[in-house]
Design brief:
Blueprint: H1 11-35, H2 39-69, H3 73-91, H4 103-132, H5 135-148, H6 163-168
Helix pairs in contact: 1-2, 1-4, 2-3, 2-4, 2-5, 3-4
Length: 192
């Protein structure tokens, strides 16, 4: 991940990066589950990825992307479309294990797209935000984050970076699962 421009020093970008790091680790868990032919586990982890992305995507789309869209309209449109694609595949697992035998491959493809999407944000969007956002833009991002929340800080630390570590530590991250339309997530309140 990028660390060359200094954008990580901004708390708003640091939080988005922390969420990216958690998602990247969860993508590794999905790949392991796929290698083990454990579709049930893939679906459970997909719900965890979705739980991380709910507040994350809201902050990006309602706070970060709008001020950048004037200068980079096509780029922001592509990132939004990628969000919708990944959400659609993740949402297939919202109620359990998808019955479609092609879903595991779709999930892996969507997560490959997500991994590349994260790199575009970290190496392009975040540095552009550092260079171009005003104080008011950063405050708008803070307002979105305050409204939508985040996963608890414990879940975003390295110790809880994968579902296995969270389970070993007795942390139930299923309580955070939900779709993008659910609104704010708070610990102990599963989105429905």
């Amino acid at each position: 991940m990028c660390e060359y421009c200094g954008c990580q020093a901004l708390p708003q970008i640091a939080e988005l990066t922390r969420e990216h790091d958690l998602v990247v680790n969860l993508i590794g868990d999905v790949r392991t589950a796929h290698r083990d032919a454990d579709v049930s586990r893939m679906a459970r982890i997909a719900r965890h990825v979705s739980a991380v992305l709910v507040p994350h995507t809201a902050v990006e789309e309602q706070g970060l992307f709008p001020p950048l869209a004037e200068e980079f309209p096509d780029g922001m449109a592509v990132l939004r479309a990628e969000h919708r694609h990944v959400e659609a595949v993740l949402d297939e697992a919202a109620a359990g294990v998808p019955a479609d035998p092609a879903w595991p491959r779709r999930l892996l493809d969507a997560l490959d797209l997500l991994r590349n999407h994260i790199l575009k944000e970290q190496d392009g969007v975040f540095p552009a935000a550092l260079a171009g956002l005003s104080t008011e833009d950063w405050e708008a991002m803070d307002a979105v984050r305050s409204r939508v929340g985040t996963l608890s800080a414990d879940l975003a630390t390295t110790a809880f970076a994968t579902t296995e570590f969270a389970a070993e530590a007795g942390v139930d991250i299923d309580q955070y699962a939900g779709s993008q339309q659910d609104g704010p997530l708070t610990p102990g309140k599963a989105a429905s």
